[in-house]
Amino acid sequence: MSGLTDLSSLLCAFSECKNFETSIPGSSFLILLDFYPIGLTLGLAGIAVYKQELYLLLFSLSLSLNWLINLFFQQVAFRQEGAFPGCGSRYQMPSFSSQQIVCFQTMVAFYTIAWTRRVFYLNSLSMHCFSALVVFARTFIGINTVAQLMAGAGFGFVDGILFHCIIYFLIFPNFKAILGWRFSRWKGVVDTLCREEKKNLPTRKK
Known about the structure:
It contains 9 helices and no strands. It is mainly α. It has one domain. The longest helix has 26 residues, at 146-171. It is elongated and about 50 Å long.
């Protein structure tokens, strides 16, 4: 995308999409929404590095791994073209957008349950609505089939649970040791998102 200098050149990337040329107001906005998962991943990585928050660093790493898993499925395992060949990247099974969004929201949901003891919070409603709009944009443009979107959502949900379990059950009990590493102290890595939960960790029997 480095060669795309303005909106018109960006929209040219979708010139082969069947539903691209439309008179529906806001169609260009829906096309821009297609890049939301990439912005989400890179944005969270930037925030994690800036804040040096241990959980955010692990969260960002999880999304990056989910991206690589999606690439493996698309380019190696399935190699299935999108709804209309030439619309977007060649292989679209499973959908990257739905997989990344569902993985992100699954990890956020499990974080709120595990660390804040809340099953639902108001901000999640707006996040789900916005994510649904992004998924709609994929079908509106004609990039993905419904099956590709559903497969992406399924893989994203499984990955989100897997990453959360790895962090919560394997890495989180060792947060104190990780923060004590020389590299962590040198980089100023902190833990402000999960430290209250440490008081509830069961003590190990000697």
